[in-house]
Design a protein that fits this description.
Helix content is about 65%, strand content about 0%. The chain is an all-alpha fold. α1 (about 5-35) runs antiparallel to α2 (about 40-55).
């Protein structure tokens, strides 16, 4: 179970992390569009990426307190955040995520 302080901090920071993640994805999509390939190749490559990326926690997270640890774990695995983004969270929570 997460502490109230961790939960409030998570809710505060998640939108910022998601915006940063989506900007990174948009940069990757721009590179796909700018590639020297046929329009149809670029279109279908982009379509595949969008389908894949829409389910990322860095894009769309289920906001439940019971899923906070899972969401943080996914954000770390997706490289949407780093351990330094967890500054301010409880030592117990950070330690439990340090193995990612």
């Amino acid at each position: 179970m997460s502490s109230e302080r961790d939960w409030k901090l998570f809710r505060k920071r998640l939108p910022e992390w998601q915006e940063r993640c989506m900007q990174s994805l948009l940069d990757e999509y721009s590179a796909i569009i700018a590639a020297a390939e046929s329009p149809s190749t670029k279109f279908w490559k982009l379509e595949r990426r969008l389908k894949q990326d829409i389910s990322r926690v860095g894009v769309q997270a289920e906001m439940r307190r019971s899923r906070m640890h899972f969401n943080l774990h996914c954000l770390l695995l997706e490289k949407a955040i780093t351990m330094s983004d967890l500054d301010g969270f409880s030592e117990e929570l950070v330690a439990s995520l340090a193995e990612v």
